[in-house]
Amino acid sequence: MITTSDFKRGLWIELEGEPWLILDVTRQTPTARGASLIVKVKMRSPKTGAVQDKSFRGGDKVNEPNVEERAVQFLYSDNEGFHFMDNESYEQTCLQADELGDAKDYLIDNLELTCLVLDEKVLGVRLPSTIDLKVTECPPPSKGQGSGQTKSATLETGLVIQVPLYLEQGELVRVDTREARFVQRAKE
User: Fold this and answer.
1) Residue 148 has pLDDT above 80, yes or no
2) Which of 10, 42, 62 is the last residue of a domain?
3) Biggest alpha carbon–alpha carbon distance for the chain
4) Do both 136 and 119 map to the same domain?
5) 74-102: per-residue pLDDT in tens?
6) Where are the beta strands (DSSP E) in 127-180?
């Protein structure tokens, strides 16, 4: 059983016998005395693709679906979708952009990640917490401005994030996949 305190983006939960992927979690503490914590969840059904909002009380428990994790490698994307290869059986699977959600913004060739499977149907992928991506477009570096200021940069996957002013096009950056934010420069 999973409690609401365990809820986070990317977690799978089971409601009414169906698996759901948590897309976003917000926690609200009511101002009234004696009122309990409210956990609001935005979640998606892998079977129908439907997105639903649901509220839980603090301490509520839900079942964890029997989701199997398999090591896979991202191969390439084309008009059909995003292609992955199972590292043990070498079988290939194709997923659509809507099945991947935000994960599609981090996929680079030969990336090793985890595939989530329920009843032999691929539900989605779990990314590593950080990925190194190359900056393909950004304004030239600027100096003399206050520290902490940022500029927009487009990465090799098309993802746009905020980076420090000193970064240049062609540099490799480490990106937090949970929050889509710059972590640090990366070494090639």
Assistant:
1) no
2) 62
3) 58
4) no
5) 999 899 889 999 888 888 888 888 778 77
6) 130-137, 150-155, 160-164, 172-176
Q: In what order do the strands lie in the sheet with 92-95?
A: 92-95, 81-86, 68-78, 112-118, 121-126
Range of the domain at 171: 130-185
Asked if residue 67 has pLDDT above 80, the reply is no
pLDDT digits (tens, 9 = 90+) for 121-139: 777 788 888 889 999 998 8
Q: Which domain-ending residue is among 62, 81, 104?
A: 62
**Whole-prediction pTM:** 0.67
CATH label of the domain that carries residue 81: 2.40.50.140
In angstroms, what CA-CA distances link 63 with 1, 6, 15, 47?
5, 12, 7, 18
H/E element holding 100? Answer: helix 97-100
Number of structural domains, the chain? 3
| Average model confidence (pLDDT) across the chain | 83
Distance between CA atoms of residues 109 and 75, nearest Å:
5
3-state class percentages of the chain: helix first, strand second, coil last, to nearest 5:
5, 50, 40
